[in-house]
Amino acid sequence: MARYSINLAMTAERLPMTTTARPRRRIARALGAALPVVIAVTLAQPAYAAPRDGNHGRWHGSPVAEQPPPSGAFDYTQVEGLTTDRYATVKETLNLPMHDGTEVYVEVTRPADANGQPLTGQWPVIFEASPYHGTLSDREGMRILPDPRDADGVSLGLTGYFVPKGYAVVMMDLRGTGKSDGCLDHLGPKDAQDLKDMVEWSASQPWSNGRVGMTGHSYVGSTPSLAAAMNPEGLETIVPSAGMATMYDHQFQAGVPYFLQWAGPMEAYEQIALERDLPGGEHVGEKPEETGCGLPNSSLTAGEAQLSGQYTSWHGERDWRAGATAADIPVFMVHGVNDNAARVAGMKWFTDRAGRAGDKIWLGQWDHGSGCCPNRRGMQWTYALHAWFDNHLARRDVATGPAAELFLSDGTFEGGRTGDRSQVLTDSQWPPSNARSLTLHPAADGTLAAAAPLTPGSVSFTGDPAGFNDPQGTGGVDFVTEPMARDTVLAGQPAMDLVASVTTPRVHLIGTLYDESPDGERRRISQFAINPELRVGVATPKPVIPGVLMEMQPPGFAMAHDLRAGHRLALRFTTSDPDKVPTFAVDPRVTIATGPGGTLLQVPVVDSPALAEDTVPFSLDEGTAGGPAQTGETASVTPAAGAPQRTPVTIAFHEFDVQAGFDNAALLVSAVPSLDADIDLYLQRQNADGTWSADLTSGGSSSLTEEQLRYAGPAPGRYRVEVHNWAGAPNTRVDLTLTYLNSSGEAGAQP
Fold first, then answer.
1. What are the pLDDT digits (tens) for 490-524?
2. CA of 174: how far to CAs of 231, 416, 735, in Å?
3. I need a surface site. Which of 5, 339, 451, 621 has the fewest CB within 10 A?
4. Peptide bond preceding 465: is omega within 30 degrees of 0, i.e. cis?
5. Domains contained in the chain, CATH given
6. What is the pTM of this model?
């Protein structure tokens, strides 16, 4: 194996310390999907008052006349002038010493001739830095770019897609992971310096054109923001997907721990680093003295603060928000408002860029996409990334689409997370340029209205941990608006002034904002949370005095939602929720103050939203566009047992055929267990040799009564649904319904 040395100028850089729901899912799943987000878009107070009907405080949105909608959603598959396949590829492996002498493992794939010999030339560079290489993911970039796939259903990834088009792709194992030496740094100062070194090394190689772009998803979507904060020579753009710029946002929402991700920096990432040094691991025997050496760098060193949620020096050493916000490069941010592993709170650093010229954002309803994709946009994502890198790295004059695209869906919460779509809101920036803040006031009678109550009031409830399993079945209090008189788009950063008292020294206060449909079904569209001890700042604990009202500003999740006519907004306060760890949820009396000087909510309302129907193709072979979708089918399967591991006794299959000649734009699979059970779904396609592909997509919520999977543009062929009884009684029957949708969203006939 070749060994290279790099001599780069080192500039020690320390950034100043700053302060600033997912249902019951398992700690084991934190390993592959971890990385959060907190957004703070401060919108100016509007100069108008929303019209009200009588004394009900009914609000209709902006009185401004609506502008004509765009002619249609931007179709990235139609962008002209993109680079095309011209070359074969060749891969080189290297061990490169970093600033402290630690060697990291690197793979470089670049264009070659028909004989596999490297071509002379200077290529734009795409760089991925990951802790998952060799354990949870490949070194080809399949996680960030799952489509297109080859004839066997295997993703081409970054290397297989971009290198034939004239790019060099650099894959790096972060120190202490994969085949790299050293100790896991948890995105600390050593990681940051390594990233700076690697960007500058990539830009300075004779095969490089000096222009480097970074991308990645989840933890790998966080390394680009660290690199940007270090301001390395040659970094021209970053495309972070579901990433963050501070470890604090990965673990806590103002002191309230996120379920699954809270434990990641304590143990989960250490386990990944340890596995590579154990028998069967890629690094076993290389540096036995380094086995488990990252533990002193874990968040456990923060001590009791891991329970209180206090921001400590450990977080300060891993906080790159200021540098990432200030980075003078264009950023293409990709995130899902319902991401259950990288909450849409870690995006704050991008929001603080305040619509900087050249930046771009995709904000959708999707979740973390574990098991399928970085987002739910299929080949639209592939071509959007292609156009972005062609423009910024290859210097081609190609269209990169609107600066802001917010992908909406008006169905269920689970449907939105798995890819349902209705319209696209486009804008010239994020936060939306036409967004205004509308203030809503909770009242003691349970209403939520634009009109402020004239007299002080309060509502009390008993907090308990039951909300971890059922947020509607736990102690809490609700405030609900009148039905909307018109469709109203909410997009931007909500804010809350919470005035409340508690009776225990430490308890979590959680305010969830729902879209409540006319039939009473609720869909979460934002969530606020805080540990009252941290009400004056996450780095500055202040004791709670039982029974005394406190003023707090719990941060909320960014919003992108079309609240339809007839629906209501419902604000529910609890002390536990499926999105959070219920470590401190018991309090006999939590009181929410209303009226003058009491609690209020601010929601961002978009005036004259530029909406277009989201009918662009997600696949290049979606069938005969405009025709009917294939007839659906029903089936039942029965796994023999239930357990978290996918084994022959915990799974069962249903095979089926996707037929040619139909406009099959999407496949929906719904599963209903005969008894309450946590069911997961996986979709695979049969290869030409009769074997089965890796998972094409998956569905894995924590519902005990149903599960759903969605797959865009299924090509004709043989498929199977794998039904995994993750937690349920043995021999639980699962009833499946397969539904096909055409390009217009119309369902095929059902049997």
1. 999 999 999 999 999 999 999 999 999 999 999 99
2. 19, 33, 44
3. 5
4. no
5. 84-334+372-388 (3.40.50), 435-606 (2.60.120.260), 633-741 (2.60.120.380)
6. 0.84
